[in-house]
From TrEMBL:
Gene3D superfamilies cross-referenced by the UniProt entry: 3.40.50.2300, lambda repressor-like DNA-binding domains
SUPFAM superfamilies, alphabetized: lambda repressor-like DNA-binding domains, Periplasmic binding protein-like I
Domain HTH lacI-type residues, every copy: 3-57
InterPro entries, alphabetized: HTH_LacI, LacI/GalR-like_sensor, Lambda_DNA-bd_dom_sf, Peripla_BP_I
Gene Ontology molecular functions: DNA-binding transcription factor activity; transcription cis-regulatory region binding
Taxonomic classification: Bacteria, Bacillati, Actinomycetota, Actinomycetes, Kitasatosporales
Keywords for the protein's UniProt record, in alphabetical order: DNA-binding, Transcription, Transcription regulation
Short name of any one Pfam family annotated for the protein: LacI
Name listed for the protein in its UniProt record: LacI family transcriptional regulator
SMART domains documented for this protein: HTH_LACI (SM00354)
Length: 348
């Protein structure tokens, strides 16, 4: 049911005129009253009506692209490609283009919901959420409700690199096959003869982390090889560097380490060199994503290739409506194993 101005006024115990003054910002209102009105707006998820032209068009010329960290090449590549596709497919009222705004959440679920609320109030034409989702039931429910309400108001919703929100039929989702990637990496190392494999994983509460670990564990179980030590941390170089000490403390005889992504793998490699170990002579190292620098690392990094640029482009097209999603809304994104110089058979 659509929330009205009168509903907000009743919740805040003020007149509709006072609510209008607070939201339009064109008349002084006592601070306590203003706070009460804004709290009611947030609790009821009320969307302020825009101008008559905005109402006629249903949505504005704004497209929001939500990323965890724009400085991370994983997100930068996809966001850049999406923005280009949005520009090509734009049909907005002003000059024929949409305004793509990149929102950096820092991985915070609170910031993600805040940005979605701001985009909702602006009647965004589309939103694209990039990167793995948080596996928290409360956040999942809140996100699903928010996205459903935005979709019902005419906003196109696209997920890029995360699975669909359970129970949400309003979104298009480009789903990376992270499980297969994790399995391919483990099978590659097992095929080389490794039996003591450590894992420097990402944050434990993220879908990407769990799915990549699932594939890794499936391969080990199929081969009858016990799982090695696993650490969890952010998807950054510092995390990979710190993981090495913990992994070797738990198993000093490791011959291989799988990293959560290529950036984490760089940190792992640096820490191994500081210990006087060679790669892959003493320890093989593998990453994930196939970021541009992985081929130039020394040694070049074995990794899993994800089509990040192509996925960002498709996300942008889905957001603009220039590409239609399949009937079930899910677009599987395959991955491929890229074998380079950072992995080799263990020393006898």
């Amino acid at each position: 049911m659509t929330v009205t101005l009168a509903d907000v006024a009743a919740r805040a115990r003020v007149s509709p005129a006072t609510v209008s003054r607070v939201l339009n910002g064109n008349y002084p209102v006592a601070a306590a009253t203003r706070e009460r009105v804004l709290r009611a707006v947030e609790e009821l998820d009320y969307v302020l009506n825009g101008t008559a032209s905005s109402l006629a068009a249903a949505t504005s010329d704004l497209v929001g692209v939500l990323v965890h960290d724009i400085a991370d090449p994983f997100f930068g590549i996809m966001a850049s490609a999406a923005q280009h596709a949005i520009g090509e497919g734009g049909s907005g009222r002003a000059g024929g283009e949409k305004l793509a705004v990149v929102c950096n959440t820092g991985g915070s679920p609170e910031r993600e919901l805040t940005y979605l609320t701001l985009l909702q109030r602006q009647r965004a034409a589309a939103v694209i959420l990039m990167g793995g989702g948080l596996e928290d039931p409360v956040h999942l429910d809140a996100t699903a409700a928010k996205l459903a309400r935005m979709a019902e108001a005419g906003t196109r919703v696209v997920l890029c690199g995360r699975p669909p929100v359970p129970g949400d039929a309003h979104t298009a989702a480009l789903v990376f096959d992270n499980r297969t990637g994790g399995r391919l990496l483990a099978e590659h190392l097992l095929g080389l003869g490794h039996r003591r494999i450590g894992y420097a994983a990402g944050p434990a509460d993220r879908t990407t982390t769990r799915h990549r670990l699932d594939g890794h564990r499936q391969a080990l179980a199929a081969a009858g090889v016990p799982e090695g030590p696993t650490t969890h941390g952010p998807y950054d170089r510092v995390s990979g560097h710190a993981a090495v000490a913990e992994l070797f403390a738990r198993d000093p005889d490791l011959t291989a380490i799988v990293a959560a992504n290529d950036t984490v793998a760089l940190g792992v490699c640096a820490a191994l060199r500081e210990r006087g170990l060679t790669i892959p002579g003493d320890v093989s190292v593998a990453g994930f994503d196939d970021l541009p620098f992985s081929v130039d690392a020394v040694p070049a990094l074995t990794t899993v290739h994800l089509p990040l640029h192509g996925s960002g482009t498709r996300a942008g097209r889905l957001a603009m409506g220039t590409e239609e999603p399949p009937a079930d809304g899910t677009v599987p994104v395959p991955c491929t194993l890229v074998v380079r110089d950072s992995t080799a058979p263990p020393r006898a």
